[in-house]
Amino acid sequence: MKRKILCVLLSLMLCTAVSACAESNSKADSTSSAESSASAVNNITADKLIDTAAEESMTQKAYYADDVFRSNVKKLYGIEYDTIEDGAIAYGDNGSADELSILKLKDGTSAQKALEGRLQNRKTQFENYKPSEMPKLEAALIFEVNGYWVLIVSDNAESIKEKIGN
Length: 166
Description:
Shape: globular
Number of strands: 5
Number of domains: 2
Distance between the termini: 60 Å
Structural class: alpha+beta
Order of helices and strands: HHEHEEHHEEH
Helix content: 55-70%
Mean pLDDT: 81
Strand order of the largest sheet: 1-2-3-5-4
Low-confidence stretches: 1-41
Number of helices: 6
Largest sheet: 5 strands, antiparallel
């Protein structure tokens, strides 16, 4: 009888020890996972966002460090290059209005106004050039994610937004 009680007690102690280790590992995994997510958010760049979310039709790309981007910032967004901390653009070269523009300003202020100006210029360009593109321009999205301001002009704007948000 004493042996049975001893076996039961030892079994209970073993179960308690195993479950405590599992809970400890689970907490460690949760902490590690949260740290990885925070690290991923901190490692976001416009280049990575463009490469992750741009559609195949957006074959032309220019990144922050590129001369093409640097020399066209004022024309595209109406702001000076030296006010931008990071940025990139992807667009189609087949006469479509498709575009993904991403800007992060050095002083942390909103780039919404610059992107709204860009969108208005695109609407003006396309209303007579290719009116069939106007619905996607009218449905364009402008939003902020982790300090980056994003303009999406695409038939699949919501899908692109989801890719950027994840």
